[in-house]
Design a protein that fits this description.
Layout lengths: L1 E4 L3 H12 L4 E5 L13 E3 H5 L9 E5 L1 E5 L5 E5 L5 E4 L1 H14 L3 E4 L10 E3 L6 H5 L6 E10 L6 E5 L9 E7 L2 E8 L1 H7 L5 H12 L5 E10 L7 E2 L2 E3 L15 H16 L4 H26 L4 H10 L2 H10 L8 H10 L2 H7 L18
Parallel strand pairs: 1-2, 1-9, 2-8, 5-11, 9-16
Antiparallel strand pairs: 3-7, 4-7, 5-6, 10-13, 10-14, 11-12, 12-13, 15-16
Helix pairs in contact: 1-3, 1-7, 7-8, 10-11
Length: 374
Amino acid sequence: MIRIAGGGPAGLLAAREIARKGMDVTVYEEHGEIGKPVQCTGLVSRSGLDALDVDYADSVLNEIGQARFVSPSGKEFYLRKRKGYALVIDRTEFDNEIANEATSEGASIELGRRLLDEESITIAADGAASYFARKHGINRNYVVAYQIENRMKVDVDTVEIHFGSFAPGFFAWLVPVDENRVRMGLGYRPDVASRVHDAYNPKTALRFFAKIRGYPWVPISEQGGLIPLFDNSPSVFDNLALVGDAAAQVKASTGGGIAIGGQCAMILGKIVGEGGSLDEYESVWREKFGRELRVHLAVHKFYSKLGDAEFEELFDAVDDEILRIIEKNAEMESISGLGPVVMSYVSKHPIKAMRLAKYLKYVDGDVTSMFKFK
């Protein structure tokens, strides 16, 4: 019997794959319902969802084609993809679809039960604040997120990303659900917030953000959660494997974890289902996603150190050629190919390179992975 702690996407995808191989597997979900409480913006690339082999059609609420990036003072630029490049999903519907697929393959799900022991093979998919990760000495850094669903008129095709000291160490976002609703929220690093603000309250900060941007404040619901920052910690301990948010298989630059965490769960499920070792899972997922996760962490470390004035200067440096480079070479699930192209651009523009040289002080060794880490 394989036991899985946590009935989110990672745990359910692992269960589905294990059951498909004919092995007995049970998911233990501490809450009384699958997919609740919701602690997610629900923005995922279409390619990322497709990689999970889930029938997600009924969970799609909106299709996104572009992103608007905004500086602290309101300067902006757009990155444009194709319509439907990213999707906004109903997480409750999505999670329940995976649960149905898992049970149809023979997996069992027990609601209202929390798994705390490690008898036999145990998969910990118990989220960002994983009990099992902490039990094995992993103490991660987090981005703390706060979000409301807000009633307001929006451009349904556009996600917005806003940088500024109202979201210290991260950013604020608007993710449109439909023409009249948006998921509006922000993330912050507690360590950065303590340096920037005498006191910091995310709800107050989000209301301040809405006011300075001229957005109404008509909350329909609110939620909060933790985004674990990838730290390269082990994901396997004897007969225990961490997966998804519990393993911090999350893109630190954006906070997205459904696609990569889900694919890691599928890798784990197939290996366990075929009688493979957990060490094989550790090796395979790191080979496939380790570099990408390190690059996302490097980007996060860079922008989390910037103040408002520095964001303004960087926004001033963005021109049409840079935007074309980013649109062509960066994807939501993969940004590691962007570095060499940006370096080539900078080498051809020495004046701009000199202006940007001051930001080298914010670059630590990890950032070089974006350009040459293998």
